[in-house]
Amino acid sequence: xxxxxxxxxxxxxxxAGLVAxxxxxxxxxxxxxxxxxxxxxMAALIDRxxxxxxxARQFVPDAAELNVTPEERADPIGDLxxxxxxxxxxxxxxxxxxxxxxxxxxxxxxxxRREMVGPQGLGTLSPDAMDVAFAYIGDHPEIWEVxxxxxxxxxxxxxRLTEIMQRLSAIDHVKIVRFHTRVPVVEPERxxxxxxxxxxxxxxxxxxxxxxxxxxxxTPTARAACARLVDSGIVMISQSVLxxxxxDDPDTLAALMRAFVETRVKPYxxxxxxxxxxxxxxxxxxxxxxxxxxGLRGRISGLCQPTYILDxxxxxxxxxxxxxxxxxxxxGRYTVSDFKxxxxxxxxxx
Length: 350
Ligand SMILES: *Cc1c(COP(=O)(O)O)cnc(C)c1O
Ligand code: SF4
Fold this sequence. Notes:
Its cofactor is [4Fe-4S] cluster; pyridoxal 5'-phosphate. By secondary structure, this protein is of the alpha/beta class. It has eleven helices and twelve strands. The protein binds pyridoxal-5'-phosphate and iron/sulfur cluster.
């Protein structure tokens, strides 16, 4: 059970006790379509005695993924609508995504880019495409921030990352480099001195947005990896997806947000699940999501509050969809709810 390398095939899933032999045929069909990877750290975290284990649910493929509903789409957040050159997504004026690589250390079953990542995905940017992407960033002085995502940029070797960072370092108008990653949790052993030096090599202010969805993912080893990043001067923020059967209850969400804050990772975004193909078993309603987020306000520190986000299908960008504390009754008169849900008039009537 102490896998030293990642689980990547249906047969390895059965060997590891993660898929019952009678379900193997369905998973083999699924594997033709979507990539599978479970890192050793995540395989070790799965409780095989629990049929509803929230870690297994995120990474072990399920035949339910073959059910595609009419509203689902291959490019749920409209990356392609805003891609001026290969590898760049430029939706907001002051920041771009740079997708250098479409490989991940794990493949999440609810992934919003599941049609683009993995061995059959968009691959790694060629040297020529990389030149074009950097020329684009250099030619657009309004680009203040470059967000490395993918795929998971921290699967790149420190040498490749350093090359990318040195090229960013030469572009004066870029002030912030942000990395979106799952590596500190799913492959914490990668966060070593060489990788950290590579992340810092641009000389720009570096942010790492850590993707994790369940408090058990923040193991002592994962927390130590985050501590190495933060101690090196990198600012960490969190990113989670609200997922049915993983974190859609008040206790789990509160524990997750507290685990981030204890780890010096500031909760940033809680995403409503995107309309990715074959993911309807993970989706809850926006009303359910808003009720869960309202519950957080009532029970945990302000430090632990994420912003609830919907990425509007079609490439229209993100919108904050959290519960509204205030409602206008008429001009100059409001009703505002306190953290217990009790309503008050503003300004006060007397
Ligand atoms: C999500 C996203 C960003 C980052 O948005 P923030 O609100 O700054 O975190 C930037 N560009 C694109 C295309 C995105 O999808
Ligand atoms: S790490 Fe991110 S990009 Fe990779 S499979 Fe998971 S959600 Fe998708």
